[in-house]
Design a protein that fits this description.
6-stranded antiparallel β-barrel; 2 domains; 4 helices; Thrombin, subunit H; alpha+beta
């Protein structure tokens, strides 16, 4: 008989003891004992209530963890949105600065400047071309420039869209000169660099000199910076030097360029 009682599950003993304590506390004897009984049974009552308190604490911990994870995800989303807004703001600020820089382009006789948005760039190194969009009418052979210098020429037009051959394109040659001299040269593209043809060794400008459009040929307006000389090498048996240059304009990072359209009477 005693073995069967000992085999009773512990929670049944605890529940029985808890009911007994409540009965004693509500009985006349428990009321007579008063606070001393409460002090005596307080540790036991706390021990009996501990599992429920632990369970409640664990539940609150899981709820708090889920709320914290939700707040972290929401914070990350807001940070990403803020970063996107800041990137857009910086891009708009850069475009605004580019548009303002185009306003300082010098006025050219018989030409009008129009701003054009850069839509795309050719990946081919030897065929350096751009796609532009303008709000005004564009014509083939219109010159294209940035605030730093000549970029190229309009090759073909479809509505307000234009394909531009840049001065790095191997098929393009630009008549140029050095201001204040009688030098007449051709600047032609070579993929990532420029070559300057027909430079006499005796008249070769020093490294760092800037060549300007001469206006010869009638396509490019005169007085636009084209290239900066980076190296000069004499060629044995030739009166001309081998001259390399770089564009004065750095249009690869520009979102806006300017088109010089010739005024027609």
């Amino acid at each position: 008989m005693s073995r069967r009682w000992l085999g009773v599950r512990p929670w049944i003993w605890l529940a029985t003891l808890f009911v007994l304590l409540l009965f004693v506390q509500q009985s006349p004897l428990g009321q007579q004992i008063g606070p001393r009984a409460n002090l005596f049974f307080a540790p036991l009552v706390s021990a009996l209530q501990a599992p429920a308190i632990w369970w409640q604490d664990i539940s609150q911990w899981f709820i708090g963890r889920d709320q914290l994870q939700s707040e972290v995800l929401d914070l990350r989303k807001r940070v990403q949105q803020q970063s996107f807004v800041e990137q857009e703001r910086d891009a708009l600020r850069a475009e605004n600065m580019q548009l303002r820089s185009l306003l300082v382009l010098p006025e050219l006789p018989d030409y009008i400047w129009h701003a054009a948005k850069v839509l795309g760039r050719s990946p081919d190194k030897m065929s350096q071309r751009l796609m532009l969009k303008a709000q005004t009418q564009i014509h083939a052979d219109d010159a294209v420039a940035s605030s730093e210098g000549l970029v190229g020429v309009v090759d073909s037009v479809s509505g307000h869209l234009a394909v531009v051959r840049t001065i790095l394109d191997a098929s393009l040659a630009v008549p140029a000169t050095q201001p204040g001299s009688g030098l007449a040269v051709l600047v032609r593209g070579q993929g990532e660099r420029l070559l300057v043809d027909f430079v006499p060794v005796e008249q070769a400008p020093p490294v760092g000199s800037v060549l300007m459009t001469s206006g010869s040929g009638g396509i490019f307006p005169p007085g636009i910076p084209v290239a900066r000389i980076v190296s000069i090498r004499p060629v044995a048996g030739s009166v001309f030097a081998e001259v390399e240059a770089e564009p004065t304009a750095h249009w690869r990072r520009d979102a806006w360029l300017s088109i010089a359209s010739q005024q027609h009477p």
